[in-house]
Specification:
alpha/beta; seven-stranded parallel β-sheet; two-stranded parallel ribbon; about 15% strand; globular
Length: about 325
């Protein structure tokens, strides 16, 4: 793995995935710039290491002039997290999802092309079509635009790969499955793991959309940050797509039972976007293991404990 110090831009770097990736790369000695409009992220997320950043810019990826000026910093790598990430918001406001995830990605790609900056694109496992129960999802599994969010992510992937083929731009596309851990939002736009743990700590009922049979492959955020870091520095990864997950599927109703205690009620409520639900999600990460020499190190029980301990003090 290349250990030479790199100049790295992280868009959306004050968000959940971004802040952990920034911390991982700072710990490895790299120079980090963060661009974030704080729509999903927070300055509090990066307080721990803000003084170690080369710069933190509050701004939007759709601002062409700002992005153009920023790329004068001679970046080696751009990790692109910045996006509209909420599925329900994409259904309510598809134009925002398109502008942020398609036009915004285009602006970043154009600067990467002009300056020959490697692009590491954070996609999502939600781009996949539901698999048969128990079947692991490989990178060749069928994609399915179930809502404007997933459509915009598929579009982003296609844009990124087109720049690889047309302009020989070095790119990597990453499809992490259900990440969780400290700094993930625990409000309505957060992840189910953080929402459930936060509600338990408050003594509130855990609410499950539908029948709870939908399965997710949960893996811990620091494992995900290491996955992203290895993709950044692997020449073998260029031009490829990688899954990352634990390889273990957990049904949401079983997760609720694992987190709840005898005093916490579990409620099943009407699903507000059942058509966009991917029911069976279990990652085949063997490609990441082979090419990136990566595999997760934190199991579900350890991760729940770490997340619970963090949320207790928020």
């Amino acid at each position: 793995m290349d250990i030479k110090v790199k100049n790295i831009l992280i868009t959306g770097g004050a968000g959940f995935m971004g802040r952990w990736t920034a911390k991982n790369l700072l710990n490895k000695g790299h120079k980090i710039w963060i661009l974030d409009n704080l729509s999903n992220g927070s300055e509090k997320n990066i307080e721990e290491f803000r003084d170690k950043l080369e710069d933190f810019i509050i701004g939007d990826i759709k601002d062409k002039e700002l992005v153009s000026e920023l790329f004068k910093n001679n970046f080696d790598i751009c990790i692109h997290f910045a996006a509209a990430i909420d599925v329900q918001e994409s259904i309510d406001n598809p134009e925002k999802s398109f502008n942020d995830n398609c036009l915004g990605t285009f602006n970043i790609l154009e600067q990467c092309r002009k300056h020959n900056v490697k692009m590491v694109f954070a996609s999502s496992a939600l781009v996949y079509k539901t698999a048969e129960p128990g079947r692991k999802i490989t990178e060749e599994h069928a994609l399915y635009a179930s809502c404007p969010y997933t459509a915009s992510k598929i579009n982003g992937e296609n844009l990124v790969m087109s720049y690889s083929k047309t302009y020989n731009l070095p790119v990597v596309i990453l499809r992490p499955f259900s990440i969780y851990g400290p700094y993930q939002r625990s409000d309505s736009e957060g992840g189910v793991m953080s929402i459930f743990i936060n509600k338990k700590l408050k003594g509130e009922p855990l609410e499950i959309f539908g029948d709870g049979e939908q399965g997710r492959d949960f893996f811990y955020i620091e494992d995900c940050a290491e996955f992203i870091a290895r993709a950044c520095f692997s020449d073998k990864a260029i031009g490829q797509i990688f899954n990352a997950g634990s390889g273990i599927e957990v049904k949401i109703k079983d997760l609720a039972e694992k987190i709840a205690d005898d005093k916490i009620e579990i409620k099943f409520i009407k699903h507000h976007h059942p058509h966009a639900e991917v029911m069976n999600m279990r990652a085949d990460s063997s490609k990441a293991e082979d090419v990136l020499n990566w595999k997760p190190t934190i199991n579900l029980e350890q991760g729940i404990l770490k997340t619970t301990q963090w949320l207790k003090f928020q």
